[in-house]
Amino acid sequence: MSHATAAAPVSARNANTARKTAGVTFRKEGALRRFLNKESVAGYVCASPFIFGFLMFMIVPMVLSLYYSFTDYSIIGEASWIGLDNYVEMFTQDDLFWKSLGVTFLFALISVPLKLIFALFVAMLLLKNSKASGFYRAAYYLPSILGGSVAIAVLWKQMFASDGTINQVLGLFGVKSDFAWLGNTKTAIWTLIILAVWQFGSSMLIFLASLKQIPAELYEAASVDGASKWTQFWKITLPLLTPTIFFNLVMQMINGFLAFTQCYIITQGKPMNSTLFYMVHMYDESFTNYHAGYGAAMAWVMLILVGAFTLFLFATKRFWVYDEEA
């Protein structure tokens, strides 16, 4: 047999092998392409940056904080497991824990209803369309953007100082005063409440959007039946707004419980801890006293309290929130 004749079968086998390999590769690439073209896979690929960020900056820190809450971690030293000691100390030995919890609940339970009432009132005023309505909406929303900043907190502190703007304005009306609004245990908390109520813009816009969804035919029918504006508000507007009120209430109560910047910059919990918010106390324990493990335990207690309060609101929802499907 000649060399050329012997090489022919080998070349044929090599060609067949190459074709099979190419076919397998093509099928693999086709399957991979079909897999990646699936909507669910494409969605996960697009969402992967968020998923990665959520895991790295939310879930992992939460797991670590839960672990540290059972340790004596002090930031500058190694953590040692101490079990429930932080929680026992919190409920039995830390008087400032209960004080800060009471101040925070007082702040939230007063500021949030006032904010929602004011937001609804302004939303109803802006309901009528006019050439300047867009300007007014932006102007009223602006405090919600700026109110949580350090700059506004510093400005607020200067305004309510004994020689600040508030006392100067009172002087224009003949009321000479050097009253220390931030140095009095009865008025200091109210300066923070006023600042919180001033940031009503986001709730106002949500109320405004909901008011525009109420059918005008309902008001027309009520007017034909002789219902006054006040009656229409109580019988039509308010019941149909209860889902929006519920949403704003939940969101604003959570924000109220987690308030930090205003108190820390303006009063730092003074005078006599009358404005010591829970988050400020937690910050002091974690980064001033270097009790980071104790601060982590405080964070988890607040998470449980906020979750319990939110569940309570949802449990009472069926008694006062209007449900179209009911």
TrEMBL record:
Main localization is membrane
Membrane-traversing stretches: 41-64, 105-127, 139-156, 188-209, 245-267, 292-314
Q: Per UniProt, which keywords does this protein have?
A: Cell membrane, Membrane, Transmembrane, Transmembrane helix, Transport
Kindly list the places in or outside the cell where this protein is found, as annotated in its UniProt entry.
Cell membrane
Q: How does it sit in the membrane?
A: Multi-pass membrane protein
Task: Give GO cellular component annotations, separated by semicolons.
Answer: plasma membrane
Q: Where is the ABC transmembrane type-1 domain?
A: 101-315
The cross-references to PROSITE patterns, in alphabetical order and at most eight, read: ABC_TM1
SUPFAM superfamilies from the entry?
MetI-like
- Which Pfam families would you find in this protein's record? BPD_transp_1 (PF00528)
Per the UniProt entry, what are the Gene Ontology biological process annotations, in alphabetical order? transmembrane transport
Q: What family classification does the UniProt entry report for this protein? A: Belongs to the binding-protein-dependent transport system permease family.
Tell me what this protein is called: ABC transporter, permease protein
Q: Output the lineage of the source organism.
A: Bacteria, Bacillati, Actinomycetota, Actinomycetes, Bifidobacteriales
